[in-house]
């Protein structure tokens, strides 16, 4: 039975799994006039793999040009801006959510984006392998009642290939320090509006505060406190940008700040703009 709790199931190409693949010749949804929204806060994982041509996507407030043998991936809760015109000449787009991910046999650290790189480059050999798996998945999804195990097996292969390419320049993700940094990112993602202390996080990860500082600085270039502050302000920018434009006081309280004035000062310190100025720029 389809999991109706997932937003992706509304457009899923499979009866049991929340997953969708789109290519130039397969999977497109015809948008009715007035229903197309080029900006979306994603509730699921999204990837676009470019085989030929190029395209430009926005992720949160950054622009990314995606060219041949490159893959852009977007995490849940990030804001995606569709290309205004071209999608490239040949590509695959993939969407799946946490429910689908939970059925796979392993974890894929790249999905947490520990190195803060949304785009991945593939060698020609790896790109050919990736294209082959995308094509197999597309063919499987053309039949809605295909065995779920077959789709999951090939999705596992696809994500393993992408995970390997993501970490190719930095070594294996099994490195203990990187594993701890990933643990830090997960903890922050799940608790940032609670404003945990550095000591609390270090204890959660079985690290000293000095070791935590060293690891976070190595992989992000930021101190743990700066990292959490940036995450809070990014969430504020996402909510403002995507139209969740309540008062500054309400936004501050929603993000766990007891003092809206302090939140406003912090927002300006990080972004260089006041909250009101950010509103105006988006008007």
From TrEMBL:
Keyword line: DNA-binding, Transcription, Transcription regulation
Keyword DNA-binding: yes
SUPFAM superfamilies named among the record's database cross-references: Homeodomain-like (SSF46689), Regulatory protein AraC (SSF51215)
Domain HTH araC/xylS-type residues, every copy: 182-281
Highest taxon in the source lineage: Bacteria
Pfam families attached to this UniProt entry: HTH_18
Protein name as it appears in the record: Helix-turn-helix domain-containing protein
């Amino acid at each position: 039975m389809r999991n109706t709790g997932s937003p992706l199931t509304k457009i899923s190409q499979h009866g049991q799994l929340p997953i969708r693949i789109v290519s130039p010749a397969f999977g497109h949804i015809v948008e009715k006039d007035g229903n197309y929204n080029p900006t979306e806060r994603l509730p699921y994982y999204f990837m676009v793999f470019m085989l030929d041509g190029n395209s430009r996507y926005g992720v949160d407030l950054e622009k990314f040009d995606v060219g041949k043998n490159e893959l852009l991936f977007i995490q849940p809760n990030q804001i995606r801006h569709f290309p205004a015109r071209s999608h490239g000449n040949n590509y695959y787009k993939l969407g799946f959510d946490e429910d689908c991910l939970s059925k796979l046999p392993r974890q894929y650290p790249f999905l947490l984006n520990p190195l803060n790189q949304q785009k991945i480059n593939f060698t020609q050999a790896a790109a050919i392998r990736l294209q082959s798996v995308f094509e197999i998945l597309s063919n499987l999804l053309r039949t809605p009642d295909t065995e779920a195990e077959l789709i999951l097996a090939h999705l596992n292969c696809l994500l393993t290939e992408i995970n390997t390419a993501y970490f190719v320049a930095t070594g294996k993700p099994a490195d203990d320090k990187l594993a701890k940094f990933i643990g830090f990112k997960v903890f922050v993602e799940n608790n940032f509006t609670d404003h945990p202390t550095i000591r609390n996080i270090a204890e959660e990860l079985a690290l000293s505060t000095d070791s935590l500082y060293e690891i976070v600085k190595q992989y992000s270039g930021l101190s743990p406190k700066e990292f959490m502050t940036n995450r809070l302000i990014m969430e504020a920018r996402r909510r403002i940008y995507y139209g969740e434009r309540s008062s500054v006081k309400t936004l501050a309280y929603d993000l766990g700040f007891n003092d809206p004035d302090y939140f406003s000062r912090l927002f300006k310190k990080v972004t260089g703009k006041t909250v009101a100025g950010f509103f105006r720029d988006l008007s």
